[in-house]
């Protein structure tokens, strides 16, 4: 690799590398690196926030390095707050397997499956005894773990911290030992866990892994990190039309950030975009259309991106009814219930709010009666982009 290649891989879309000079030396050495990516199958879906790290993995994969994907089937039963200050419910093995299957289908939309080694934590933790656990915990102190920002804040606020939560970083660290990781990838919220892995490897005589951290992508609300629970996410498994519409709703202030983290548009072109936005010579909508096409082309293809753009222009910009409309469930129910039943609203209260605010149309006419009885062949529009036809 040339220095220019290394600079691009280590700078574009990267928040922090520990230790960068060691990482550069590894890349120059020609060694085939083992790149660790762990995922918590507490939830099945991936959004564009996850895509930031996955794109980096793909870049390293294309350079000939080995990705090792770890299915965290053990730690999914413990839960890692990662700044959320809440514990996650324990999952059954069946739930873990189902979530993992969905996750991997989406993971391999971005990363090359043929060049990925898949490992399950149960391969090594299934053999662990109480003695192994005690030996592992003896290597670190409570004080070290309370230095973690989330634990520290909760401890000072006298909020509970379960012993199992303290085990989480140790188990994740042992994953690095088990697979002999050279580099671990993830968001900046995982920094503490990565450093524990690095230290544990040194303790057992392995070369300490490099910690490769990417920025946390801000969600479509423009303020908080992208999260499914916050509803500010764009899912990689959503349809091209859904992805396109959501990208168009991203605040103008995030356009350049999204281009940098989620596309391969050259830095020189991004600099032109930035100057155009700064001096108001560039149209934000034009740039967001380009952004949406770039993202969809990666997850689907260029044809799907073009079709999604056409759909947006017809249904949102020209307010035309789309050519193809998904069929809903059987008619005869109240509009409020029908919206929930067909997943156009998450709950009855959200459905009522959407109707009261004038966001629901029946056959192109605004409908504000929550008790309206849906008729056969009614075309229902919720918000700007979601259409359904009753049956």
Please, could you describe this protein's structure?
This protein has 391 residues and is α/β, with parallel strands linked by helices. The chain has three domains: 3-214, Rossmann fold, CATH 3.40.50; 240-317, Tyrosyl-Transfer RNA Synthetase; 335-389, Roll (Structural Genomics Hypothetical 15.5 Kd Protein In mrcA-pckA Intergenic Region, Chain A). The protein contains 17 helices and ten strands. The chain has helices at 3-11, 20-29, 48-62, 93-107, 122-125, 130-137, 142-146, 149-156, 163-179, 191-203, 240-248, 255-262, 267-278, 284-299, 302-317, 335-341, 348-356, and strands at residues 16-18, 34-39, 66-71, 116-120, 183-187, 210-214, 360-362, 365-366, 379-382, 386-389. The chain has a six-stranded mixed beta sheet, sandwiched between helices. A four-stranded antiparallel beta sheet has the order 8-7-9-10, with no helix packed on it. α10 (191-203) links the parallel β5 (183-187) and β6. The longest helix is centred in the middle third of the chain and has 17 residues, at 163-179. The model is unreliable at 80-87 (pLDDT under 50).
List the helices and strands and how they pair.
Blueprint: H1 3-11, E1 16-18, H2 20-29, E2 34-39, H3 48-62, E3 66-71, H4 93-107, E4 116-120, H5 122-125, H6 130-137, H7 142-146, H8 149-156, H9 163-179, E5 183-187, H10 191-203, E6 210-214, H11 240-248, H12 255-262, H13 267-278, H14 284-299, H15 302-317, H16 335-341, H17 348-356, E7 360-362, E8 365-366, E9 379-382, E10 386-389
Parallel strand pairs: 2-3, 2-5, 3-4, 5-6
Antiparallel strand pairs: 1-6, 7-8, 7-9, 9-10
């Amino acid at each position: 690799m040339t220095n220019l290649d290394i600079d691009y891989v280590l700078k574009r879309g990267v928040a922090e590398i520990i230790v960068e000079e060691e990482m550069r030396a590894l890349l120059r050495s020609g060694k085939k690196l083992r790149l660790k990516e762990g995922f918590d199958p507490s939830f099945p879906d991936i959004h564009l926030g996850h895509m930031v790290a996955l794109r980096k993995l793909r870049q390293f994969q294309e350079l000939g390095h080995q990705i090792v994907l770890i299915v965290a089937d053990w730690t999914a039963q413990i839960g890692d707050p990662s700044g959320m200050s809440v514990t996650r419910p324990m999952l059954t093995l069946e739930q873990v397997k189902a979530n993992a299957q969905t996750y991997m289908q989406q993971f391999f939309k971005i990363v090359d499956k043929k060049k990925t080694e898949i490992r399950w934590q149960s391969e090594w933790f299934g053999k662990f005894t109480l003695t192994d656990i005690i030996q592992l915990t003896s290597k670190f102190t409570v004080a070290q773990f309370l230095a973690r920002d989330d634990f520290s804040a909760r401890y000072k606020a006298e909020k509970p911290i379960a012993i199992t939560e303290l085990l989480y970083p140790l188990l994740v660290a042992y994953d690095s030992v088990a697979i002999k990781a050279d580099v671990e990838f993830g968001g900046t919220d995982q920094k503490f866990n990565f450093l524990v892995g690095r230290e544990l490897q040194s303790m057992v005589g392995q070369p300490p892994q490099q910690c490769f951290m990417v920025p946390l992508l801000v969600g479509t609300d423009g303020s908080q990190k992208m999260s499914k629970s916050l509803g500010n996410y764009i899912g990689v498994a959503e349809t091209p039309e859904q992805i396109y519409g959501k990208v168009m709703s991203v605040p103008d202030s995030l356009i350049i950030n999204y281009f940098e983290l989620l596309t391969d548009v050259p830095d020189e072109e991004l600099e032109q975009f930035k100057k155009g936005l700064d001096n108001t010579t560039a149209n934000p909508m034009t740039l967001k259309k380009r952004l949406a096409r770039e993202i969809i082309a990666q997850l689907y293809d260029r044809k799907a991106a073009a079709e999604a753009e056409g759909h947006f222009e017809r249904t949102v910009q020209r307010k035309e009814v789309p050519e193809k409309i998904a069929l809903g469930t059987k008619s005869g129910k109240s509009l409020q219930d029908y919206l929930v039943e067909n997943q156009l609203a998450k709950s009855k209260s959200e459905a009522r709010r959407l109707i009261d605010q004038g966001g629901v149309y029946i056959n192109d006419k605004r409908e504000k009666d929550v008790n309206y009885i849906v008729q056969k062949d009614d075309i229902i529009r919720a918000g700007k982009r979601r259409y359904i036809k009753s049956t």
